[in-house]
Description:
The chain has 262 residues and is α+β, with helices and mostly antiparallel strands. It folds into two domains: 3-139, Fructose-1,6-Bisphosphatase, Chain A, domain 1; 152-260, 3-Layer(aba) Sandwich (D-Maltodextrin-Binding Protein, domain 2). 40% of the residues lie in helices and 26% in strands. The protein contains eight helices and 13 strands. The chain has helices spanning 3-22, 36-58, 89-93, 163-179, 189-198, 211-223, 237-240, 248-260; strands spanning 62-66, 70-72, 76-87, 100-107, 110-118, 123-128, 132-135, 138-139, 152-155, 182-184, 203-207, 227-229, 242-246. Strand 6 (123-128) and strand 7 form a beta hairpin. The model has no long low-confidence stretch (mean pLDDT 86). This is Inositol-1-monophosphatase. It is an enzyme of class 3 (hydrolase). Mg(2+) binds at residues 86-87. Its cofactor is Mg(2+).
Amino acid sequence: MHPxxxxxxRAARKAGNLIIKNYEIIGxxxxxxxxxxxxxxxxxxxxxxxxxxxxHKAYPQHTILTKIHxxxxxxxxxxxxxIEPIDSIxxxxxxxxHFAISITLIVKDRAEVAVIYxxxxxxxxxxxxxxxAQLNGYRLRSNNAFDLQRIILAxxxxxxxxxxxxxxxxxxxxIFNQKHIDFRRTxxxxxxxxxxxxxxxxxxxxxxxxxxxxxxxALLVRESGGLITDFSGNDNYKDxxxxxxxxxxxxxxxxxxxxxxx
Length: 262
């Protein structure tokens, strides 16, 4: 195993073990509008600290970017670990098992290693640049659908007052109506992209994402034979923050239809 993939896996599993131990307990905690944010942040901080500890014990000079701690700058700024402690904490609090831990290793601005771990489902997705993607040790390939008829499209953000979000929703609705596309809204960016890599869903699109949301999933999709672009078909999704992931045929069809209904 790649030594840094080994560390990423160890960190994800350590955080996952803590989640598993407390999965049933979370249902007994009274969460309301007053304490909701504090409880969620406390969970994220605890998980982040566990993973930071594992990574820095192995690589004390590496930089780490997290959702809560932000940028923990090490002596080696060319190597950065990006951590998402719990992707879809709302699902976790409701005891819906569709949530995950994501870790990405970035070397000189290029993703080299990715891990997405769903602890309750006991599914660990991993990828190494140039060496493919796996689920629990088995090789992944994105599916080979050729057109949009009857595909399953996973979607992210659906509700917002922002005008760009409203336009995005209008485009997606038109495609649904025209092509009889089914859709899924699960709440976990990382798992939705991992499912594209595994061929469980045919495509994924979303807006307003941050690096810790999509970096791990992006490497999984590419290493399984899929492609990722922004809504214009360019490789600018990190700046535009809108993203489509699919196999090459479905991606092309989605982009053509999004342009058609502009």
